[in-house]
Amino acid sequence: MAQFDGKTVIVTGAARGVGRSVARRMLESGAKVMLADSDEAKLTETRDDLRGNNGNVAAFGCDISQKFGVNNLLSATLDAFDHIDVLVTTATDYERVDPLDLTADALERVMASNLRSAFMLTKIVSAKMIAQKETAKEGSSAGSIVHVSSLAGQVASPEIAAFSISCAALDQLTRSFAIALAPHGIRVNGVAPGGVMSENVRLAIKETPDLRAAMMARTPLGRIGEPKEAADAVLFLASQAASFITGQIMVVDGGRSALDPLAATNF
Known about the structure:
Blueprint: E1 8-12, H1 17-28, E2 32-37, H2 40-52, E3 57-61, H3 67-81, E4 86-90, H4 104-133, E5 143-148, H5 161-181, E6 186-193, H6 199-207, H7 211-217, H8 227-238, E7 249-252
Parallel strand pairs: 1-2, 1-4, 2-3, 4-5, 5-6, 6-7
Helix pairs in contact: 1-8, 3-4, 4-5
């Protein structure tokens, strides 16, 4: 499969979990990939691992909740690969606390990491995509943006309220920019994993051993999803196979959101 041959992709939150899986799948599909993450040690490890598999990959450690981090990431991508075709952001900051104990500072930090970063990247990357379109071949795609949020943005999860709020806002950002960028030929979509073994879910299960069984009991497909399965949804939405899809949030949750909670006892 080489559907991204010659394409350049930025993946944020790429050091682990769903972001890392997205980067790997993009490389397998022929893309050149810029990895971005604030955890520079883990990012370097991921880059070296992917590069060892003949991946055309570079990495840039930065805090993309800050404007200079976003600007420097774009500059590093253009220096390495000359252009940008796809942006994938992943919401990774997490705060597990009773909402009555959630502080304004903690909420602001999570919103900055998960929402503000995606907002700033969408603006700066889409501006570059629009500029590239002016010199591109007629009929070519201007670009595609995919924001990875979470099912937690669509259902109430009080113990992770800050994360849930940021993901709900991120989904709305996705829809708003999809409409604004449609005249420029740029598609914007989202993927909302639920019950997928992301880094956050892995840590939550470690802290609460009973959580694994509870998640499986409430998932009609009867298992926890793999990061690769969320990554495959990202690849689809970013590809030309989804050329008439924009402003959509694809839920990847094994049927969990379709299940009446009262029926969960039957699984």
